[in-house]
Structure formats: C-alpha cells, structure tokens
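A sample copied in:

***
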Amino acid sequence: MICLLFFAYLNRDGCFLYCSGWRGVGFFLFLALWLLLFLGSRFTGRVILAGLAVLLAFVYEAGGFVGHVAAAESSAVVTLRALRNNLENAKVQHPQQGYPERLPADPPPFRFRPAYRFAYIPTRNMGEAVASYRIEATPVRPMCGCAIRSFTIADDGRIYVTMQKRPATTSDLPLH
C-alpha cells in the first residue's frame, strides 16, 4: 500500500510513467518486494537489505533521469538527420519533382523517438513543386521534462535549437 501511494504521488501529473515507462513500473515492483522482505526479516537481514538498497540507489542514480533527456534529444537530432537524408535521396531520384510532398519513409525506430513529435513543413515555389522544407522536432510532453529542447532542420542541413516551448526556427541558434 505504501508503494502504491508513493507511485500515485510521483505519477500525479502522469509524467513519471510517461518518462520512465516499464522501467518505472519495474522499480515499484522491486520496491514493493524489497519492503516486504525488509519488514519480514530480522535485524541482520534488515541491515543487509538496507546496505543493498543504498548501493542500488547509487547505481540507479548514476544512470538517472538526465541521461534519458540527453538520449531523447540525441535521438531527435539523429532522426532529423535521417529524415533529411531520405528527402535528399528522393530529390536526387526525381529531380524534376523537387522534394516530396510527404516524408518518403519512417525515420529509424530509436528508443526515445516517442518523446518528440516530428512535423514536415514543405515550401513550394511558383511552379508548385516543393523547393525547400524544414522538419521540426518538438517535445510531446515538455512539462514532464523527458525532452526539453526543440529542434528544426532545414534543407541546408543545419539544425536549429531552442529551449522555449515552441518549435525551433531558422532564426534560433544553430546546433554545433
């Protein structure tokens, strides 16, 4: 019951489960088992379990939440580059048509891709062909902190970034 109350408190806005996924559920199942063993043990068993808990807390924190944010943002940048490569390949294969109307293929299935929403914004020239584009990657749930920065890649290959809660534009800082 204590574990369920703790889980309900951490997930009160839906962010804990969204950001941690099954890893978070596994953590609470482990916590419930640990608490059951701790309360059912004698003094020596409790000391051993407490020592193991301290060690596991350091290990869990070492691969903690900040690593997830960096991995999500890195995956978004890699996905943007892969999408750009797909568009450039499609343009080379069909030079008269320009860039395609839609993205030619899904980006690679990176683990943290659900943290971002990708939008393809084509720009047409006078002849109605797509002459340029930008692809925006914006966090799906920025209030959760799973992904913080927004990225945009333009047809020139430069990636722009912003920390504001909006899509990045070409007037924002370029990513180095």
